Amino acid sequence: MNEQLQWDDLRVILAITSAGSLAGGARRMGASHATLFRRLNAIEGRLGVRLFERSRTGYAATAAGEELAAAAKRVEAEVLGVERRVIGRDLRLSGVVRVTTTDTLLMGLLSPIFADFQSAHPEIVLEVAVSNQLFNLSQRDADVAVRPSATPPEHLVGRPVGRIAQAVYARAGAASDNWVGPDRHLGYTALDSCMQANGADANCRYRVDTMLGMLAAARDGLGRAVLPCYLADSDPALTRIGEAIPELATDLWLLTHPDLRRVARIRAFMTFVAEALAERTSRLTGKYGD
After folding, report:
1. How many domains, the chain?
2. Do 145 and 258 sit in the same domain of this protein?
3. Cβ atoms of 247 and 197 closer than 8 Å
């Protein structure tokens, strides 16, 4: 059986198993539904065994399918590990660095730093993936992550490069007691707890699932909002109300996979970003006059 299998066959089986559907597997593979359907039929035809039970609710792996999916996971882990180790020997200041960060950090802080880095290293291509979810650096979804975290994943290496402060902001001159808060899809439990503890939650008349959406709402006079100081202090339409909120301060981390930390372009990028952020400490901490 195994002699007839190729790595691409295992990838198809793993994608469908992980997604639980043909459509989801196609998205993971970057292929069309019809293409993946034909490939799965061809694999089952060559092996002479049914790998999935089809139903209206999705694709459930048979015993044979589960066995092959488990083998595919082991092969994938080995392939990705070899890839990271080989890339780790790359000493050239050229190539691609894929970075993941949040929308607020990119808009409010990192974009000009990235621009300066590319000016200093024109042969390095930056690919920026904006997401509020931590990408899987072990799976090579990204090479470097720049994001706030109280407990960064233990399998990654890096360092805190600043402390993000947050405070209450409102449209300049606005007298509204209404509040703007995070939608449940934002998953910002610390802010939810803080607003409930201070009674702000009872007066929350507008919720949104991104921090940039909360910024826009406060700017347009929909109410007060808790926002990162690096993002809101520079907005002329907003006024800070009171001091930064201590319980919402969060470390900003610069992270990579251990196998990639000696790659020249990644090491150069992380050093450059860390130094640039050190020069912007007052923006992160929200301290006036620094």
Report:
1. 3
2. yes
3. no
> How far is 138 from 145, CA to CA, in rounded Å?
12
Q: Identify whether the C-beta of residue 158 lies closer than 8 Å to the C-beta of residue 256.
A: yes
Per-residue pLDDT of the chain (290 residues; tens, 9 = 90+): 445 678 888 889 999 999 989 888 888 888 888 888 999 999 988 888 999 998 888 899 999 989 899 888 888 887 777 666 665 556 668 899 999 999 999 999 999 999 999 999 999 999 999 986 655 554 557 899 999 988 888 888 999 999 999 999 999 877 678 999 999 888 788 999 999 998 999 999 999 999 999 999 999 999 999 999 999 999 999 999 999 999 999 999 999 988 888 888 999 999 999 999 999 999 999 885 44
Query: Can you give the residue range of the structural domain that contains 150?
Result: 95-164+250-285
> Which CATH number covers residue 51?
1.10.10.10
Q: Which two tokens stand for residue 221?
A: 């006079």
In angstroms, rounded to a whole number, what is the distance separating the alpha carbons of residues 247 and 91? 42
Say if 290 falls within a structural domain. Answer: no
Distance between CA atoms of 130 and 24, rounded to whole angstroms?
Answer: 21
Question: Which residues on neighbouring strands pair with residue 148, listed in sequence order?
Answer: 252
Q: What are the start-end ranges of the E strands in 102-156?
A: 124-130, 144-148
- 59 φ, ψ (degrees, to nearest 5): -115, 120
Distances (CA, A) of 269 to 44, 96, 114, 144, 260: 46, 11, 9, 9, 12
Distance linking the first and last C-alpha atoms of the chain: 68
Do 48 and 79 lie in a common domain? yes
What is the full DSSP assignment across 7-64? HHHHHHHHHHHHHTSHHHHHHHHT--HHHHHHHHHHHHHHHTS--EEEETTEEEE-HH
